[in-house]
C-alpha cells in the first residue's frame, strides 16, 4: 500500500523527535513540508529528495505529498511540534479523497504547549486549553469566546501564534479578555524558540503580559488561579498539597 | 550539580519516546516511578536500580527521587505520556524545597491527548481542552464547570481518566453536561492502551458515548461542532476548506 507519514518533529532540536518519527523519516523516499521544518531534518538525510512550499501554501503542500504517495513513493510530510495540533494531519485527510487510496499514518510529536511547559516548569499540570490567536482561518469572535470561557472556568492556557506583524496587538486583546475573570497577579510565562538556538523564557504576571511584546515564535502560558511561581518556575499544583 | 530528570515516556512503546528522554534514562543511576511505567523502561536497562511506589503514593515517590538526587545520584523519575500533563513535574517542584538543591530538568513527552489523536485521525487540529474526570484531587464542581465552559465555547476536548471502578458513571455525567450545548451527533472517539499491545479505538457519536463503557486506560475525544468523520477518521478542520 502506498504510504504517507504525517510526522510531528517535536520542538526543533533533533533530540526532541521520537524514535517513531525518526523511523518514518528513514523510510521516506521524499521529505515534504514548509521550508523551515524540512530544514531541520534535511541535514540528517543528505541526498534525500525534499519538496517544499512557502508559508500559507498548505493546500498545495498537502496535495503534493498525496500525489507523490499515490504515485508510489513513501512520503513523510513533516510538521513542527505535533502532526495534528495546528498541523497538516487534518488537511491531509480532507484532501485524500482527491487521490487514489494512500495509507496515511499520523506520527505524533511533542507539541509546543508541552515542550514550552517543560522549559517554564510545570504550568500545565492541571486541566488546560490550547488556543491559537491567529484569525487567518478562525473568526476573532470565536477566539474571543474561547478565551473568555477558558478564563472563567479557570483553565491553564497555552496560546499559540500569539502575534505576527499584522496582529501586533492580539496578545494585548487576549489578556484584556482574561483580566475580566482573572487576577492581574495571575502567574504567566512565555517561551521563544523552544528547543532551538536562542531559546529564551520569562515568567511574569498577567498584567505585565498585557504589555509584553512577543513574536510568532513564542508560546504563551497563562496560569490558573492555582498556578504559583516557585523558585523561578511556573507550577500549577494538581491538588496533592492537601495531602502534604 | 545533583541532577533529577522528570521524564515523559510518551504513550508506551519505546519508539514513542524522544531521543532526549532516552538520553536522560541512559544517564540516570536510578530509575524511579510508578511500577507500571518503570516496567516499560527497566527492560532497556538490565541491572540499573529501579525504585517504585504503588499507585497513589506519588508524594512518597517524589520525595524518594529528590532524596536520592540530593544524595548525589543522577535520578530519572519516569511518567507516562508527558512529565507535566497530570505528571509528576509539579509535585517535584513543590517538594524540592525540603531537600538540598538539586538541578531539576523536565523532559517533555507525547501526552495521551496527542498520541490518541494520532490514532483517531486529527481530532485536535483546532483549539482544544484537556480535562481529567478524576475527582480524587479536584472537586467535581470544578470539573463540571470546565466541561460546561468547554462545551459552550465549542472546543475539541480530550478527557483523561474518564472512568475507574469507583467512578463508573463519570463519563455519562460528563456527556450529559456536554449535551446541554452540543448536538448528540457530535463526532467522538476513544482510544484504549495507546501505543501498547491491544490498542483499540472507536468512533461514535456523543449520544452513543454517553452509554459507552470505558476504563482508566482509555482517553476520550469529543469533537467540536466542526469535527467530521471522514473515511473512518475523526477530523477537525482548521478552516482551510474555505480555500479549497
Topology diagram in text:
2 copies of one chain form a homodimer.
Chain A (H helix, E strand, L loop, with lengths): L2 E6 L10 H9 L2 E5 H7 L7 E5 L4 H13 L4 E5 L9 H7 L7 E5 L4 H9 E2 L5 E5 L7 H13 L3 E5 L9 H9 L8 E6 L7 E6 H5 L7 E5 L5 E3 L2 E3 L9
Parallel strand pairs in A: 1-4, 1-5, 2-3, 2-4, 6-13, 7-8
Antiparallel strand pairs in A: 8-11, 9-10, 9-11, 12-13
Main features:
homodimer, 244 residues, alpha/beta, five-stranded parallel beta sheet, 8 helices, elongated
User: What value does the average pLDDT of chain A take?
Assistant: 95
Oligomer: homodimer
Tell me the total number of β-strands of chain A: 13
What is the 3D shape of chain A?
A: elongated
Helices and strands of chain A, in order, run as EHEHEHEHEHEEHEHEEHEEE
Helix tally of chain A? 8
Pair with the most extensive interface?
A-B, 80 and 80 residues
Largest sheet of chain A: 5 strands, parallel
Low-confidence stretches of chain A: none
Helix content percent band of chain A: 25-40%
Instruction: Report the C-alpha radius of gyration of chain A, rounded.
Output: 19 Å
Our estimate of the beta-strand percent of chain A is 25-35%
Strand-pairing-aware structural class of chain A: alpha/beta
Distance between the termini of chain A: 55 Å
Q: Biggest sheet of chain A: strands side by side, in what order?
A: 3-2-4-1-5
Give the gist of this structure.
The structure is a homodimer of 244-residue chains. The longest helix of chain A has 13 residues, at 58-70.
Amino acid at each position: 500500500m502506498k504510504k504517507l507519514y504525517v510526522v510531528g518533529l517535536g520542538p526543533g532540536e533533533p533530540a526532541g523527535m521520537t524514535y517513531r518519527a525518526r523511523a518514518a523519516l528513514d523510510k521516506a523516499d521524499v521529505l515534504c513540508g514548509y521550508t523551515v521544518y524540512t530544514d531541520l531534518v534535511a541535514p540528517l538525510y543528505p541526498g534525500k529528495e525534499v519538496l517544499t512550499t512557502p508559508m500559507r501554501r498548505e493546500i498545495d503542500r498537502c496535495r503534493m505529498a498525496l500525489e507523490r504517495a499515490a504515485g508510489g513513493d513513501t512520503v513523510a510530510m513533516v510538521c513542527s511540534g505535533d502532526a495534528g495540533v495546528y498541523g497538516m494531519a487534518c488537511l491531509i485527510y480532507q484532501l485524500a479523497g482527491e487521490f487514489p487510496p494512500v495509507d496515511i499514518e499520523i506520527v505524533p510529536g511533542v507539541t509546543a504547549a508541552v515542550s514550552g511547559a517543560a522549559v517554564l516548569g510545570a504550568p500545565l499540570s492541571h486541566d488546560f486549553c490550547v488556543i491559537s490567536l491567529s484569525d487567518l482561518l478562525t473568526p476573532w469572535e470565536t477566539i474571543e469566546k474561547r478565551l473568555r470561557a477558558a478564563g472563567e472556568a479557570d483553565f491553564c492556557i497555552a496560546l499559540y501564534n500569539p502575534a505576527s506583524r499584522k496582529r501586533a496587538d492580539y496578545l494585548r486583546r487576549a489578556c484584556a479578555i482574561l483580566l475580566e475573570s482573572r487576577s492581574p497577579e495571575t502567574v504567566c510565562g512565555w517561551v521563544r524558540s523552544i528547543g532551538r538556538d536562542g531559546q529564551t523564557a520569562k515568567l511574569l504576571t498577567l498584567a505585565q503580559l498585557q504589555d509584553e511584546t512577543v513574536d510568532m515564535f513564542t508560546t504563551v502560558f497563562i496560569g490558573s488561579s492555582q498556578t504559583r511561581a516557585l523558585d523561578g518556575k511556573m507550577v500549577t499544583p494538581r491538588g496533592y498539597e492537601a495531602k502534604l
